[in-house]
Amino acid sequence: MNLRNIGIVYRKELREALRDRRTLISSLLVPLLLFPLLTAGIGAAISALLGEAKKEVPAVMILGGEDSPGILAELRGSDKIKVVPTTKNWKDEVINKEIRAAIEIPAGFQDDVVHQKFATLFIHNYEGDMKSALATDNVQKSLEKYRDRIVHDNLAAKNLPETAFKPFEIKEHNVAPPEKVGGAAFGGIIGYMVILLCLTGSMYPAMDLTAGEKERGTMETILSSPIARVDLVFGKFFLVLTTALVTAALSVTSMGVSFAVLGHLHAFDTAGADAAQLQLHIGIYTVLSIFIMVLPVAVLFSAGLMTVSLFAKSYKEAQSYVSPLMIIVIIPAVAAMLPIDLTAKLALVPILNASLLCKELVTGTYHWNFIAIIFFSTCVYAAAALFLAVKMFQREDVLFRS
Amino acid sequence: MIETRGLVKTFKDKKRGEIRAVDNVSFVCKPGEIYGLLGANGAGKTTTLRVLATILEPTDGTAIVCGHDVMEEPEKVRANVGFLSTATALYPRLTSQEMVEYFGRLNGLDEATLKKRVDDIFTRLDMNSFRDRRCDKLSTGMKQKTSIARTLVHDPQVMIFDEPTLGLDIMTARTIIDFIRECRQRGKTVIFSTHVMSEVDKLCDVIGIIHSGKLLSEGSLGALRSRYGENDLEEIFVKVVAPLYAGREAN
């Protein structure tokens, strides 16, 4: 292996990559913009939509209840819902979103309540529709208020304290520090995003430097120079690795900044514990440890993508080979978002192991035995992929496939 | 000097089985001489030249280029060879000068020598007006000149040209033909493949007629004329190839 020649190839490939708009977009622009857009853009859009939905006073219909004036007065008096006149086709109106819910009061409801007989009320709604869910929530709150008043009156009539009905209450108390709470909430998605962007960052240059070069006819030109094929592969590989790592580094940095800004803004918005819970503190050591763990994954992706792309005769053909790889990578990366804990066996599963580890690192948990297994196993997979890439560059039937 | 002995190159094809693209080819090409490999499309010219440039490995036989065996010292062979074909394209995002410098560095030139060589070649080939222009913005003629400069930068002793004028306009093709002549004048060993009879007529000292991977006949134009009793090279070619062609058609 000749380091001088590897360096010459690397510098030339880097120069070409920096002049290529597609590489710049996939490796620099996407990771820089994705997280701010995801956190600020989509977050703002969701909160705007939720705010709008909450502002709306939902129209609801009351079915029956003519003999129960108490509950009718309670519902009509609520400023959280707007009671509209009853029609026969109330069901269609709920489905067509003309009204958000319909409350069915059975005949003799008030009598049953007075005689302390058990009665059931129905709220007919549109499951899965956010505005219908909000209307149901508002109706439920009004009805619970009415029920609590009845219970209170009944207890008072029998000279019983409130605790006779409700002897104790249950409260949750979080003992995890805010960064762990934030990490547990966002850790899965961070590993997934970093790994996915690492793949997309290396995808374009890997295809361009192999299949693209075959398509443009420059492969034969470079093969006629005295450089050894192993040096050529390494020169190209280091460039693909650089783009993968730059993409990963930019995505981690952009993610850290985005969450910091989001946490800061949220602290102004909401007072108290909620704000602390949503904050995600990503320290420099966490960023560094994620980066170190992503390194062998990036090697694996770079070498793997180069090997697969080299089979193709053209860039377009390479795209059709590489696209299914996205699914192979996405599945284990997404699996890390599920409530799965890292085990010794899972530490050997490529991609899933790094993704699960990223989740732990973000929460500040360091299981050194798993870190060692994951790092070395991924290094072994990466070395195998690199070996395969070198072998592939020595196969005439692959280089001159026609 | 180039010397091949019983050179064989086979490929495996799923439908056609084993294909002998080069079949027991032996010839010698001396310094200061242009050897023309004449053959129809698919005759085995490109494969033979790719084996000589060590882009492909021979299946059998040997080839010695500038004293180095293509199998044992492929990198040394390539360091002594300038390979030019219509398939050897340029890197679109590099400038003409960067392209030439890249190959100079890969050929082990130090920066001082490289600068001197590049300046020299760019002046000689009248390329200074587009030296900083990206290769994807060059005209066909400029691209060919850049390719020539790329093959010349390390001053190789052997020049291999694989159908270098294919698809080029008359003026650009003439630049290439002049360049090949200049290589001979400078004492380089030149091997040149084509199916254009007029180019062989104009350039070659020795002609090798190749068909179905086999070298069927070899000699100077004068020797071939007297051997086949024909004055026109095209007639000679047909006479050499026709029996094999008829046999293949019958099969």
Q: What does the model show?
A:
The complex is a heterodimer of chains A (402) and B (251). With 402 residues, chain A is mainly alpha-helical. In chain A, 70% of the residues lie in helices and 4% in strands. In chain A, helix 3 links the parallel strand 1 (59-64) and strand 2 (82-84). In chain A, 39% of the residues are buried. By secondary structure, chain B is α/β, with parallel strands linked by helices. Chain B folds into two domains: 1-80 and 160-251, Rossmann fold, CATH 3.40.50; 86-155, no CATH class. Chain B has helices spanning 45-52, 74-79, 96-106, 111-124, 140-152, 170-185, 197-203, 221-228, 233-250; strands at residues 2-13, 17-29, 34-38, 60-65, 68-69, 81-85, 158-162, 189-194, 206-211, 214-219. Classes of the chains: A mainly alpha (402), B alpha/beta (251).
Task: List key phrases describing it.
heterodimer; A: 402 residues; mainly alpha; abc type-2 transporter like fold; 2 domains; 4-stranded mixed sheet; 15 helices; B: alpha/beta; Rossmann fold; 6-stranded mixed sheet; 4-stranded antiparallel sheet; globular
Draw up the topology in text.
The complex is a heterodimer of chains A (402) and B (251).
Chain A lengths: L2 H16 L2 H35 L3 E6 L4 H9 L4 E3 L5 H6 L5 E5 L3 H6 L7 E4 L4 H28 L20 H39 L1 H6 L5 H41 L3 H6 L5 H28 L3 H21 L16 H11 L5 H26 L2 H4 L3
Parallel strand pairs in A: 1-2, 1-3
Antiparallel strand pairs in A: 3-4
Chain B lengths: L1 E12 L3 E13 L4 E5 L6 H8 L7 E6 L2 E2 L4 H6 L1 E5 L10 H11 L4 H14 L15 H13 L5 E5 L7 H16 L3 E6 L2 H7 L2 E6 L2 E6 L1 H8 L4 H18 L1
